[in-house]
Amino acid sequence: MASVPENIRRVEATDVSDLAEAMAELGVTVAGISGLPANRLIAAAVVSRPEVNGLVCECRGEIAGFLVCISNWKQFWLKFLARHPVFLFKVVANRLFKANLKRRSPAPSTEGASQDGGNKIYWEDSSLAISKTLYVGVRETYRGLGLGKLLYQRMFEELHKQGISRLDARIAGDNEGSQKLHASVGFKVVKRGRDAIFLSRSIED
Ligand SMILES: CC(C)(COP(=O)(O)OP(=O)(O)OC[C@H]1O[C@@H](n2cnc3c(N)ncnc32)[C@H](O)[C@@H]1OP(=O)(O)O)[C@@H](O)C(=O)NCCC(=O)NCCS
Q1: Average pLDDT of every residue of the chain
Q2: In CATH, which of 2.30.30.100, 3.40.50.300, 3.50.30.50, 3.40.630.30 is domain 6-94+117-202?
Q3: Does the beta carbon of 26 lie inside 6 Å of ligand 1?
Q4: pTM score
Q5: 181 lines ligand 1 (CB under 6 A)
Q6: Alpha-carbon distances, residue 60 vs 76, 147, 179 (angstroms)
């Protein structure tokens, strides 16, 4: 489907800075924090941490899209936050600020939300055999060419080789493009939360 020459490959050390810029451009948040410094930290983790799988799709010499998945999710974040205390401070401050805002604003409608109040039971599953999509993104110029799909297809192969049996994804409820992409590569909706949709795909088939 892609009509531009594309090369899908694992993220290399020389990609860190370009990947961070592409992530920041697409508004990737890292533990709720946006911006280039946060994205630099996660881009560096892609090449240094074995539990992080990162793929880039290169077109015309630039990163056209990327896909980052994290296995053993809880352990990863614990180690990541312990390694970056300044970032941890920002995450805590951000969460306190948001909790404060929530207390001040009226309670949102729970209509349509799942019974477990936010899918915690499913989303919190974490092990070496379970990976979670941190983000899939394709730069605007390259959207609709099948690159998101190609990135996922290659990621399934990578995860399969590593013995990972399941890939989970969490998508904003109003992100129609992302919902279509995930459905087109075989993700099934597991639960619908207040603002997010939780999906999962077996890597074994
Ligand atoms: C979501 C995103 C990654 C899709 O990437 P993409 O390369 O354009 O997707 P593809 O071209 O591979 O499309 C895959 C399928 O999804 C459909 N699709 C993709 N974007 C769509 C959109 N905006 N509206 C409707 N369908 C869409 C395609 O038609 C295709 O369906 P098909 O298999 O039936 O032909 C891209 O739009 C993006 O980066 N968006 C902004 C960042 C974002 O929201 N990321 C997801 C965070 S969870």
Answers
A1: 90
A2: 3.40.630.30
A3: yes
A4: 0.91
A5: yes
A6: 33, 14, 27
